[in-house]
Design brief:
Layout: E1 3-4, E2 10-12, E3 17-35, E4 47-48, E5 54-55, E6 58-59, E7 65-73, E8 83-89, E9 107-111, E10 117-122, E11 131-140, E12 143-153, H1 157-163, H2 169-184, H3 280-320, H4 330-371, E13 396-403, E14 412-417, E15 423-427, H5 439-460, E16 466-471, H6 482-487, H7 497-520, E17 535-543, H8 549-561, E18 567-573, H9 586-590, E19 592-595, E20 600-605, E21 610-616, H10 625-638
Parallel strand pairs: 1-10, 15-18, 15-19, 16-17, 17-18
Antiparallel strand pairs: 2-12, 3-4, 3-7, 3-8, 3-9, 5-6, 6-7, 8-11, 9-10, 11-12, 13-14, 13-21, 20-21
Length: about 650
């Protein structure tokens, strides 16, 4: 039976090999100090922390995380050690919480070798403290016991270590914080929650499952299921909630800003962020989704009204002319005229309602677009001119615009949730709706589109938390890749030749395998030190040139398994070029979200039967905004 301790209470430890589990709801640093019989830490070599995670008989995590497992072997501790203090601290400089008052009460549990809990302790009552001694393992008369401490320090790690008599406590605290910042780039992102059909839980254009081969791919929405093959599910079925069941707190989303009351007969004036959500970013995201649905509904309603008017016209004419005696002459002409007038009246009324709704959406779009943050904004938005590298990743990312033929000038941002659930495929082949570009110009435009998407992904992530690699077997994409290569945001030059392709793919496959095993085994903090677990984007140009059968297998594996552990594909390819492989590559195309480098109506919406026209988001001709943003990213990564 597990003993639930309160502050100050102790309990005997019946075994020597222990595991200490910590759950905090938010990323925290976990460490431990060793003390002598007087309770003094003799030096930095008696402190286990992310920069020095292993001591004799003790091992802690290498990075900040919401869930930790510390391993202790009491028999292997040095003879002079009489106390092991388990400490928790909030990482600074990461944009996270600065005190435990804004974090769910940390929950700790001491377990034996079989995994059975010995004791547990919830650290309650914390306020401005940013570091806390959670538990204390101590030796008394030759036997080891555990005590619930819960002693917090508003001065952080420096005060905590100084209180234990450690010389140079402030310098060591700075070293621990630096190690935590370095380890943040190696943290494993949790898999995205999915529905059984493979779609993300949550609203937004462009968050759907993969398309079928016999129809165009589609952007999905939570209120309707688009037809599509099942996408590969994340390991374990999604992220684990480490919050203690009795400490879960429910909060309400922030209210939407108030809208001024319209005058009688007037439409309400649109306001940016007038939607529910926890933050302004989420409110704008939900508002964009609402605009998408409103446009879909009003266009479908107009089409339905016109279809009804046409069918009524046919029925009335058939009824009037069913008698051969009145089929010709004035009677028949008058019946046709009246039926046509009714039809024109119905369509005119439907068009009036359509225009009214579209005007309202255009007015809302003019208010919402200027309020968008960089992740949601077009490249010509002024917000990019004041761009600074963010401290946390956004909710979603803009891939382009969507519009319908009823009002082509009304563009709705196409947003996809982050982290990406599917890779992207920029189709460099001839689009279905045609384009005024030859084959070479279209391929160049496709590569420009891929570079713009890669730059946006780099720009919206904190420095070091997202990297880009490029496979360009023949060097055909050197021109469009110049913004990436010239700014220094790439860790390595684009891979060329068959050997370069094989090396990059093998390295990424190894990363996916190791992270999958770590996540499934609950040992996400035990990855090899040389493994970079930051989000990865692999740009593949000129596919399938330079790919042999083994490379193709690796590419399909990354497309299926990579997104769940932070490895994403961005392919620039013409499907016709890979026809020689037959149907073996069909699953690859279906697993990717197809976008085009030119406007094209390939996005089918089965919910209302629309064919949405997709238009990519590209920098204006001659603009230096892309280079400016990438220079900022490169400078932040160097610092």
């Amino acid at each position: 039976m597990t003993a639930e301790l309160v502050r100050g209470q102790n309990h005997p430890l019946p075994m020597d090999r222990l595991e200490i589990r910590v759950s905090a709801g938010k990323p925290v640093l976990a460490g431990a100090t060793l003390s002598d019989v007087q309770g003094k830490v003799r030096g930095a070599e008696w402190v286990a922390h992310p920069g020095s995670p292993r001591l004799p008989g003790l091992e802690v995590a290498r990075q900040a995380a919401a869930d930790h497992r510390l391993v202790v072997d009491l028999n292997a501790l040095p003879e002079a050690v009489h106390r092991v203090s388990v400490l928790l601290a909030l990482p600074t400089g990461t944009g996270g919480p600065t005190s435990f008052a804004s974090v769910a009460a940390p929950f700790t549990a001491v377990t034996g070798p079989t995994g059975a809990d010995v004791v547990s302790y919830s650290i309650t009552g914390l306020g401005t403290e940013s570091a806390v001694v959670a538990l204390e393992l101590y030796r008394r008369q030759g036997a080891w016991k555990v005590r619930a401490v819960g002693q917090g320090y508003a001065g952080g790690l420096a005060d905590l270590l100084g209180d234990q008599g450690l010389p140079g406590a402030r310098d060591l605290a700075d070293e621990i914080r630096a190690a935590a910042v370095g380890g943040a780039a190696r943290s494993v992102a949790p898999a995205s929650p999915r529905t059984p059909q493979g779609d993300r839980v949550g609203p937004g254009p462009g968050a759907g499952g993969p398309p079928r081969d016999d129809r165009p791919d589609v952007p999905a929405a939570p209120s309707r299921q688009f037809v599509g093959d099942e996408a590969p599910s994340a390991p374990g079925g999604g992220p684990v909630d480490y919050t203690h069941p009795r400490r879960k707190r429910t909060t309400r989303p922030a209210p939407a800003p108030a809208v001024p009351s319209p005058r009688p007969g007037e439409r309400p004036r649109p306001v940016a962020g007038h939607a529910t959500g926890w933050s302004m970013e989420e409110r704008l995201y939900n508002q964009v989704w609402g605009m998408f649905e409103d446009l879909a509904r009003t266009a479908a309603a107009y089409r339905s009204a016109v279809d009804f008017a046409d069918s009524r016209l046919e029925r009335e004419i058939d009824a009037a002319l069913s008698d051969p005696r009145s089929r010709t002459g004035p009677t028949g002409s008058e019946a046709r005229r009246q039926a046509q007038e009714k039809r024109d009246g119905l369509t005119a009324q439907a068009r009036e309602v359509l225009d009214r709704d579209l005007d309202q959406l255009i007015a809302e779009s003019r208010v919402v677009e200027p309020a968008l943050a960089p992740a949601f904004a077009r490249w010509d938005h002024p917000v990019w001119h004041g761009y600074r590298v963010p401290v946390e990743a956004p909710l979603a990312l803009r891939l382009g615009d969507l519009h319908l033929p009823v009002r082509p000038e009304l563009h709705i941002p196409m947003l996809v949730r982050l982290p990406l659930e599917r890779g992207l495929w920029v189709d460099s082949g001839r689009p279905g709706s045609g384009a005024e570009l030859d084959s070479a110009a279209l391929r160049r435009r496709a590569m420009d589109t891929a570079v713009a998407h890669a730059a946006r992904l780099l720009a919206v992530h904190p420095a070091g938390e997202f990297t880009v690699q490029v496979i360009d077997p023949a060097g055909a994409g050197a021109g469009p890749l110049a913004p990436l290569t010239g700014s220094g945001v790439l860790d390595a030059p684009p891979a060329a030749g068959a050997q370069g392709v094989a090396d990059v793919l093998a390295r990424l496959v190894r990363r996916v395998d190791l992270v999958q095993m770590a996540v499934r085994g609950g040992a996400a903090d035990s990855l090899p030190p040389d493994l970079d677990t930051a989000g990865q984007l692999l740009i593949v140009n000129d596919f399938p040139h330079g790919f042999d059968d083994r490379a193709l297998t690796h590419l399909r594996y990354l497309a299926d398994e990579g997104p769940a552990v932070g490895v994403h594909l961005l392919m620039v390819a013409d499907r016709e070029d890979a026809r020689e492989y037959g149907p073996v590559l069909d699953p690859l195309w279906r697993s990717l979200l197809r976008i085009t480098p030119v406007p094209d109506d390939h996005l089918a919406d089965p919910w209302v039967g629309h064919a949405w026209t997709y238009e990519p988001s590209l920098p204006p001709p001659g603009s230096e905004v892309l280079r400016y943003v990438l220079d900022q990213v490169a400078a932040a990564r160097r610092s």
